[in-house]
Amino acid sequence: MKSIKIIKNWNKKFLWIMSMLLLVAIACREELNQENFETSELSIKTSEISELLPNMFNSKFAFTWTPANNQGTSSAISYKLEIDKKENNFSNAQTYEIGKNVYSYEIPIGDLNTMLIEKFGATPGNAINMQVRITATFTNETIKPQVAITDFTLTPFKPFTKTLYILGDATLNGWDITNATELTQNANNPTEFVYYGQLKAGNFKFTVSKNDCWCQDFYNRDPSDDGKIVYNQGGNGTDLQWTIDIASLYKVTVNVLENTIKIDKMNGPQFSDVWIVGDTSPSGWDVNNPVALKQDLSNPFIFTIECSLKEGNFKFLTGTRGDWCGQWYRPLVNNQDLVATGMVQNSGCTGDNSWKVTSADAGRYLITLNTADNTIKFEPINVYLIGDATPNGWNMGTLSPMQKNGSVYTWTGNLKAGAFKFTKFNTTWCDGTELVAVSPDQSISNGAFQERVKCAGGDATDYKWKVNAGDSGTHTITLNLDTNLLEIK
User: Fold this and answer.
1) How far apart, in whole angstroms, are the C-alpha atoms of residue 254 and residue 465?
2) Three-state secondary structure along 338-354?
3) 375 pairs with which residues across the strands?
4) Which of 23, 28, 265, 381 shows its CA 20 to 30 Å from the CA of 14?
5) pLDDT for 87
6) What is the mean pLDDT of residues 406-434?
7) HSE-up of 43 (CA within 13 Å, CB side)?
8) From CA 449, how far away is CA 464, in angstroms rounded?
C-alpha cells in the first residue's frame, strides 16, 4: 500500500514540474516574439534580373518583402505595391492592392515588358531606372503606415506584335497588303495567332500590319526548316515564303515566341462564304454587298438560300467580296436553266457563265449548293395551310398549296373554329420549315409570324392562330415572303 501512495505523490510532482516548464516556455516565446516585433523592419527586394529577354515572356518577375511590424499588437496588416520610374517619385505608379498575409507578388515578364514600354516610356534595348515601394497599413490606427523602397534597373526587349496578317497569291486577297487577312490572337497565349480559312495554290507570308509600305516587319519562312518562321525586320531579309499546292480549307498556327508555324489541311469546304449576285437576285449585280447564303452547321459543304428570283441572270460569288475577277460558282454552260444540277468553281473573268431565269420560271426558290460535289438544286417554294380550322385539316402529305405569284401567296376559303399555321413542306412532320404565330392562340387579326425549322424548339415554339367561333367564315389570306407581311381578312 505504501508503494502505491509513493507513485501517486510522484505523479502529482511530475504534473506540477511539467506545468511550470510549459509556463516558462510560453513566457520565453512571448518574450522572443516581442523582441522580433521591436527589431523587425519592413524591406523589399526584386528578382535578380536586369535584362528582360523574349524567351522569358512566360516567366515571372517577383517582388518579395518582409512582414511589417505591428509592434506586438494583434493588428492586421495590409500591403500595397507600387512601381514607377525612379524620377517620378511614384506620381505615375502602377499600383497593386495586395491584401493581408501576403509577402510576394509576381508579374509575368511579358506584361512587365509591355508596362515598361507603354506606361513608362522605356526604349527596347535601353535600361530604365525603376523603383518599387511597399506600404503596410494597420487596422490599429495608432500604428503609423510603414514604407520600404528599392531601386532596380531593367532593360526591356522589343515587344511581340499584337497583330498578324497573312498575304500572298495563296490567300483570297492576293498580294494586296491593305486587304491582308488578320489572324486571330489566342486569348490565353498572346504570342500565338491562328488563321482558319481557305488557301489556294500559291505562296504566302505574314505581315504585322496592313500598312501599304513594304518596308514594315514581316515573318518569312526559315530557309532550313519549313516549320520555323524568321522575323524579317523592316522587310530587309530574304523573302522566303510558304507554298500551298492543293486548294483547301487550312488551319495555320503561328507562334511568334517559339518562332514556329504549323499548317494543317482541314477536312472542310474550300470556302466558308458564298453570296448570290445577279439582276434576278436580291443582291442585284452588287459584288461589294451581296446577300449571303447560309452554311449548314451539320454539313459545312452545304450552303442554302431561300429567295425570290426575277427574270434575268445570276451566279454565286465566293472567297471574298468586291472582286469581279475573283472566285465564283458558275453553271457548266451559259444561260443554264434551273433544272440541270452541275456547276463549277473557278476564278477570273473568263468563262463567265450564269444561270438564266425566264419569266415563266420567276418565283421563290430554296437554292442548295453542295460544294463537296459541285451540284446545285432549285426547289420552288410552296406554302400550305394546315390545321383543324382549314379545309386541309392536320393531314400532312395531302395538303393543297396556296396560290402563288412570285413571293406572294394567297388563299380564299372557309375558316372554321379551331387552329392553324403554315408549312413550306407537304411530306412528313418536321421535314422542313413552318411559319407559326409569335404567341399561343394568336388572333387572326395579328399577322406577326416566325419561322420554325424542322420542329426546332419542340412544342414550346409551336404557336398557332386561333379562329374563334365568331371569326369563322370566308377569309382571304395574303402572305408576302419578301416583305414578311401576313394579312387575314
Assistant:
1) 55
2) CCCCEEEEEECCCCCCC
3) 342, 370
4) 28
5) 94
6) 91
7) 4
8) 9
In the chain, residues under CATH classification 2.60.40.3620 are 165-265, 274-378
How far apart CA 73 and CA 413 sit, in angstroms, is 92
Q: What is the pLDDT of residue 137?
A: 95
Tens of pLDDT, residue by residue over 226-247, are 999 999 887 777 889 999 998 8
C-alpha triplet 198, 200, 203: angle, nearest 5°: 115
Would you state the pLDDT for residue 215? 83
Closest CA to 130 of 149, 152, 145: 152
313 neighbors 238 (Cβ within 8 angstroms): no
CA 361 to the chain's CA centroid: 42
Q: What are phi and psi of 195, to 5 degrees?
A: -110, 130
Structural domain 274-378, CATH architecture = Sandwich (2.60)
CA-to-CA dists, residue 475 to 450, 472, 489, angstroms: 21, 8, 5
Residue 436, by phi and psi: left (phi above 0), alpha (psi -120 to 50) or beta?
Answer: beta
Beta bridge pairs of residue 80:
97, 135
CATH architecture assignment, domain 384-488: Sandwich (2.60)
Report the candidate in 403, 422, 409 with the shortest Cα–Cα distance to residue 478.
409
Secondary-structure percent of the chain, ordered helix, strand, coil, rounded to 5? 15, 45, 45
Nearest to 46 by CA among 130, 138, 135: 130
pLDDT tens sequence across 335-357: 999 999 989 888 877 778 999 99
Which distant-in-sequence residues (6+ apart) come within 8 Å of 37 by Cβ?
69, 70, 71, 72
Residue type, 249: L
End-to-end, the C-alpha distance of the chain in Å comes to 118
Is pTM beyond 0.85? Reply is: no
Region 361-385: mean pLDDT is 92
Q: What is the pLDDT of residues 242-285, one digit of tens each?
A: 999 988 878 899 999 999 999 998 777 878 899 999 999 999 99
Picking from 186-195, 383-392, 405-414, which range would have the lowest pLDDT averaged per residue? 186-195
**165-265: CATH topology:** Immunoglobulin-like (2.60.40)
DSSP element (H, E) containing 38: helix 2-39
| Parts of the chain belonging to CATH 2.60.40.10 | 44-154
**In CATH, what class is 44-154?**
mainly beta
Angle at alpha carbon of residue 341, lines to 336 and 342, rounded to 5°: 80
φ and ψ at residue 380, rounded to 5 degrees = -60, 140
Instruction: Give the closest residue to 314 by CA, choosing from 294, 291, 344, 284.
Output: 284
For residue 39, is pLDDT > 70?
A: no
